Amino acid sequence: MPDADLLRRQEAALRIAREAGDLTLRYYRTTDFAVELKHDATPVTVADRQAELLLRERIAAEFPDDGVLGEEHGELPGSSGFRWILDPIDGTKSFVSGVPLYGALIGIEHGGRSVVGVIHIPALGETAYAATGHGAWYIGPKGDHIRARVSEKRRLGESLFCTSEIKTFDQTGRRAVFDRLQSAAWLTRTWGDCFGYLLVATGRAEVMVDPKMNLWDCAALQPVLEEAGGTFTDWQGRPTIYAPESIATNGHILDEVLAIVAGSR
Question: Taking the complete model, does pTM exceed 0.85, yes or no?
């Protein structure tokens, strides 16, 4: 895969993620939309659907041979070997509640692995992005553009542990995992969905654990975490975007987290 192909897609992903984020901000903290429940009882709004359609239109115009998989509008096969994996609003529950921790996620898969990731938090003006082999980068609300790096903390006992929603541990029969992680960590917060993973990638949290994930939740995260010096794995410690759960760490505390997860089964 030539670097030019990779970096051209990274630049486009960054640009259109911000464009989709701007679209969602037109609805954010307004009463201009209804909230519907999908078949899995998760919420969806017109902002989710319109943002994904915008992303698909931009991708089709620039990369017509690439495949696309999105949470709201299904899959369109491609022939180039690249597949864009979209979550137009990751954290719809936060979005409809007027909480600014939702994000737009774009991952690009090639050869069975995610090679480009963009995590964009529209309401906070924060973005982290990466392409494999080219580092991870952070753009802050004041426009500062710096390398994204995980923290150097070496123990869970001095670390910030984040998760998206505590009840998902109950729903999956894994409440013991949450309880043990919370007991072992210095601080626990539900700064969830993709924002928690951005915190790990930028050194403000050390571990993010979720027991329920989808492919479109994961695809953008792996390149960003790995290029920032951290890890993104399933609950067995395997680097993958295809598992139904996830662990992100700064790398230094991964073994400690995995030991807790294994010991809580």
Answer: yes
